[in-house]
Amino acid sequence: MARGAADAATGAAIDLALCLPAGAAAHEAWSSIAQSISVADSEEKVVVTIADRIWPRLDLEPDQGWVDLLASEHATTLQPLDLAGDPEASRNVINAWVADQTQGLIPELLPENFIDDQMILVLTDALYFEAEWQRRFGKYAPVTDTFTRLDGSTTQVEFLRELELTDRRGRGDGFVGAEIPYFGGAFSMLLIVPDAGQFAEVRDRLDQDLLDEIDATFSLGPYELLMPRWAATTNLDLMGWLSAIGAAPGLYPGISPDAFLGAAVHGADITVDEWGTVAAAATGFGFLQSGPPTPELTVKADRPFLYLIRHRESGLVL
Prior knowledge:
2 domains, Alpha-1-antitrypsin, domain 1, Antithrombin, Chain I, domain 2, four-stranded antiparallel beta sheet
C-alpha cells in the first residue's frame, strides 16, 4: 500500500525487494488474491479477515488518486485523527482498531511514543486467521521425545503424531518439509525442519526463490508427521530492514510532497495445536514530513529595532 504513494526511486526499490510487478499490476494482483481468500473464507471452520486503514492528520489531504487506489484494490478505509494535537489518544484509537481486527491477539501494535506531533499519517494492515486442520490429530497417540534447541540443549516435549497424511512433502537442500492442509484445502501450513546445524542457513534462504524450489520439488505422497504444539508472540521494529531495501526514509509524495517513512512496526501472534491454528499479524507505518532547513542566521527582534516598508523592484521607501 505504501508503495502506491512512493516516488519513482523509492517505488523501484520496494518492487525489487518484494519482487512486485511494476505499476498498478501489483495492486490488481493483490485484489484478485483477496477475492480468492474471501471465497476460501466462506468455508466452514476457516476464518480469514484482512483490514487496512489510512489514518491521516486532520489537516492533511493525501493524494486522492492514492486513496482511491487503496480503496478499490485493497478495500482500505480512511479515518482522520488529531495526530499532532493528541498523539496518545490517536495511538489508542489505532491500537483499539487493530485489536478489534485481530480478535484481541495484537492489543498494542503501536508502542508508546510511536506517534509524535511531527507525524502526518499512519498506515495499518491487520490479518486474522483461524482454521482447523483438514485431518485433526488424535487418532494416533502423542509421542514424548527430545526437542533440540538452537544452542544444542535438549528438552522433552509431547509431539502430535499423524500417519495418514498424503499431501506434498519432500527433502530440500539442508531440510525436510511438508504441507499440512487446513479444512477445505485452500490453505496449508508449510513446515520446514532444517537439518542439524543448518537452521540459520535455511532461515536466511527463506525467500520466494526457496518457496518456488519447494513447490517444484515436493510431491504428493504418504508421510509421518511429528510436531509439537506451540504458541509465539513477536514484535518487530521494521526500520532497519526497510532502510536496507531503500523503502525508508524514501519519499512518498502521494501522502504529501515531502513525506518520508519514519517509523514501522510489526506484531504477530500464533497458536498451533491438535485442532488447528489461530494467528494474527499487523503492521503499522508512520510517515513524517521534512522539517525546515537548518537556519544559517537568527534574526530576533528582542530589543529596539528599525523598520522600513519598501517597493522591492525600485528600492523606493514608502
